[in-house]
Design goal:
Blueprint lengths: L1 E6 L5 H12 L5 E6 L8 H9 L21 E4 L2 H4 L11 E4 L12 H23 L3 H4 L3 H11 L5
Parallel strand pairs: 1-2, 1-3, 3-4
Length: 159
């Protein structure tokens, strides 16, 4: 199963989601991230946070949804800007859900406040990823409506 975490810039929230998901996912599940308007760079605080959590970012880069190396089974938008965007036609019929996250890279404040915003975002992503991986996915593959409902419910989870 391939999961696409989609954001506008593909520099922060979608990259945190990709890294966290891949770190926890069992064999046979893979996450990638992309942006509708990629920045072309990864936010240094996002990369540093993943490294502090022991999560590899080897091979990660800011990429467009036009250049995906695979076709996803599920598309998860993680920012408000991407929530209403239409997925590219080549993605075909995929299950879509929105797990909106505030952008920690827009936080202005002390070093501690900015770091706390990144940690909070990571905590939300981690809780949602763990909830996703706890789903009875084999059972839900046969019931797309129930899968969508479960994914939407997860998108409202806060730790």
């Amino acid at each position: 199963m391939n999961i696409l975490f989609l954001c506008t810039g593909n520099s922060c929230r979608s990259v945190l989601s990709e890294g966290s998901f891949n770190h926890l996912a069992p064999e046979g599940m893979r996450a990638i991230s992309a942006g509708s308007q990629p920045t072309g760079w990864l936010h240094p605080r996002a990369i540093a946070l993943l490294h502090r959590k022991g999560i590899s970012t080897e091979g990660y880069y800011s990429k467009s949804w036009d250049a995906l190396p695979l076709v996803p089974d599920i598309v998860v938008t993680v920012c408000g800007s991407a929530a209403g965007e239409t997925c590219p036609a080549y993605l075909g019929k995929v299950t879509r859900t929105h797990w909106g996250l505030k952008d920690p890279s827009h936080v202005v404040g002390t070093e501690e406040e900015i770091e706390a915003a990144f940690e909070r975002t990571y905590d939300i992503i981690l809780a949602r990823t763990q909830a996703f991986l706890a789903l009875p996915l084999e059972e839900l593959k046969a019931d797309k409506d129930r899968l969508k409902a479960e994914l939407d419910r997860i998108g409202r989870l806060l730790p």
